[in-house]
Amino acid sequence: MSAPAIELKGISKSFGAVHANRDIDLTVEKGTIHGIIGENGAGKSTLMSILYGFYQADKGTIAVDGARVTIKDSDAAISLGIGMVHQHFMLVEPFTVLENVMLGAEGGALLNRGRAEARKELERLEKEYELNVDPDAIVGDLPVGIQQRVEILKALYRGAEILILDEPTGVLTPDEADHLFRILGQLRAQGKTVLLITHKLREIMAITDDVSVMRQGQMVASRHTAETSVEELAELMVGRRVLLRVEKGEANPGKVKLEVSGLNVVDELGVARVKEASLQVRAGEIVGIAGVSGNGQSELLEAIAGIGPITTGSVELFDIAGEPTPWRPRHGLGHVPEDRHKMGLVTKFLAKENAVLGYQREDEFGSGVMMDKGAVLETCKRHMEAFDVRPPDPNLKAANFSGGNQQKIVLAREIENDPDVLIVGQPTRGVDVGAIEAIHRRLIELRDAGKAILLVSVELDEIRALSDRIIVMFAGEIMGEVGPEATEREIGLLMSGVRDGAAA
Ligand SMILES: Nc1ncnc2c1ncn2[C@@H]1O[C@H](COP(=O)(O)OP(=O)(O)OP(=O)(O)O)[C@@H](O)[C@H]1O
């Protein structure tokens, strides 16, 4: 048997008081897909960053293909054949695919490779792994799923034998995710090794050979995937049994709180993004909007939140607390944006500053230099406790929280302000199974307290678990409305634009 592709022994890493990794052992066999799972903040990204040379471990050893190595930076990782595809891509958007792939690979053995030769190599890789990417396309024009493939190409071009992917499917449509899994299968078939961080246990079951579980900085278990189950993995991650679907009673809808009538959104290129959308959300109900991402849900959500353009049509709110503010049409309208980095957080601000972002009313917090720092701190502490944000440190920069904990900071701010109407985009993106359970419970509690909730999610399971009514969008249009009892197939047909299939 050949030496493992990777062998970590006793890896520890601290950031100040936070023990992100504690004495971690991990063995990854060559030619396998190895899943790494764990709660938000468990230390998965830190461990992978050590392997990729972004961070240095405080203690422990790394062996690649049986040989002890020191990985002092990402160049060293690349020269050892380790490549990484990040959660947030590191591509230069105005450049072409070919230019991006060549960029930064100019050093070493690739130095003398001319453009024509680079193109040949790129085309070879692209065919071998069924990546389907046009070398001359401008990266900024490509959908995220294809941009991700460019990242993979970039790693392969640099000779990666071991590929690390950090939550690769968080931003993908189901079709794109399936394509990615085919690519990963192809990589394995060619003898390459894949390390996959994901929160989606179904993905772990479908594609990995082995899976390792982290909890609070430690490695708590490793399993052959064939010998475990989603239930066991969820329990190992969180340390208790997890309800994968939260119980909810009948809805008790009251008055209409939000009404959208004949809404059209045409973007700056003249493309109609939302076409004649009309819907209502009542107090005490959750209305879900299902659809493959990119079918107008984001534009609809932003128009309702008052931060995106409306070409024609109207959005009306009824009996909502508070006056319009520069950040939202009404104080009583909560909005969890789909993209926490672009719109939900200012990552270089502290957690406590983010906790009041957009809510910094003078009556509550004062203003400018006179801001009541004590009130801001208390608010943040309260939020952190309610949403189990880890670490519960209001003075940490938002950027230094793990992805899932950043999401909890945004959710806490919008939900704890007691909105009458809450519009939520992708509430559990990047969030672990235990936190999903808590967030789903909270949303149902809000509904039961008479709040009106509009939920947009690309996770069909989430839409079906939470919604009292489900509206399906396709190509900017509302294709139809179904009840929560609708089957995945019925909703799937509407999601692909087939209107009368739902009755079949
Ligand atoms: N640069 C940093 N400075 C301070 N603390 C950090 C830094 N990077 C990570 N941490 C902390 O280390 C811990 C582990 O974070 P890490 O990002 O590795 O978790 P994760 O398992 O990848 O989480 P998620 O699933 O939410 O992405 C967290 O408590 C995080 O706040």
UniProtKB/TrEMBL annotation:
Q: How does it sit in the membrane?
A: Peripheral membrane protein
The record's SUPFAM superfamilies line, in alphabetical order, gives: P-loop containing nucleoside triphosphate hydrolases (SSF52540)
Q: Which GO terms describe its cellular component?
A: plasma membrane
Superkingdom assignment: Bacteria
For this protein, the record's PROSITE patterns field holds: ABC_TRANSPORTER_1, ABC_TRANSPORTER_2
Where does the UniProt entry say this protein principally localizes? membrane
User: Which InterPro entries does UniProt cross-reference here?
Assistant: AAA+_ATPase, ABC_carbohydrate_import_ATPase, ABC_transporter-like_ATP-bd, ABC_transporter-like_CS, P-loop_NTPase
Q: What are the subcellular locations of this protein?
A: Cell membrane
Q: What's the EC number here?
A: 3.6.3.17
Coiled coil residues, start to end: none
Entry keyword set: ATP-binding, Cell membrane, Hydrolase, Membrane, Nucleotide-binding, Repeat, Sugar transport, Translocase, Transport
Q: What CDD domains does the annotation carry?
A: ABC_Carb_Monos_I, ABC_Carb_Monos_II
A Gene Ontology molecular-function term?
A: ATP binding
- Leading EC class: hydrolase
Boundaries of each ABC transporter domain copy?
A: 6-241, 258-500
Instruction: Read off the PANTHER family from this record.
Output: CARBOHYDRATE TRANSPORT ATP-BINDING PROTEIN MG119-RELATED, GUANOSINE IMPORT ATP-BINDING PROTEIN NUPO
Output this protein's name: Ribose import ATP-binding protein RbsA
| Native species | Pontivivens insulae
- Cite the source lineage: Bacteria, Pseudomonadati, Pseudomonadota, Alphaproteobacteria, Rhodobacterales
